[in-house]
Amino acid sequence: MALDVAKTYKTDPIGWQNAAKSLRQPYWGWDQYATFIPPTQVLSDAQVQITVADGTKKNVPNPWLAFTFPANKQREFGVKTTRNPNLKT
């Protein structure tokens, strides 16, 4: 899937495709040892900036902070989930 998205990029397409081939899901341990701690922005910023296919920057809702469920799943799961909503940063 990441490679399919990378192929749509007009700016540095080879660079984006190479990055997509080595893409890994970040993991931050939430165990009692706090083995890995995510960057503060992951836990607090409502918006993050991404680079879109034409090379421009775009602000989007932070997918690590909160997730709004699709309409057909909201009855089952609720409308939205928020990561650590009581966190004081």
Give average pLDDT, whole number. Answer: 79
Helix/sheet category? alpha+beta
Task: Give the low-pLDDT segments.
Answer: none
Please indicate the percent range of residues in DSSP E strands (runs of 2 or more): 15-25%
Distance between the termini: 34 Å
How many beta-strand runs? 4
Order of helices and strands: HHHEEEHE
What is the count of structural domains? 1
The major beta sheet can be summarized as: 2 strands, antiparallel
Shape: globular
What's the gyration radius in Å?
A: 16 Å
Number of helices: 4
- Tell me roughly what share of residues is in helical segments: 25-40%
The strand line-up of the biggest sheet is: 1-2
List keywords for this structure.
single chain, 89 residues, alpha+beta, 4 helices, 4 strands, 18% strand
Describe the structure.
This protein is an alpha+beta fold and 89 residues long. It has one domain. 26% of the residues lie in helices and 18% in strands. The chain is built from four helices and four strands; from the N terminus they run αααβββαβ. The protein has helices spanning 2-6, 13-21, 40-44, 74-77; strands at 47-51, 57-61, 66-68, 80-82. It has a two-stranded antiparallel sheet with strand order 1-2. β1 (47-51) and β2 (57-61) form a beta hairpin. The mean pLDDT is 79.
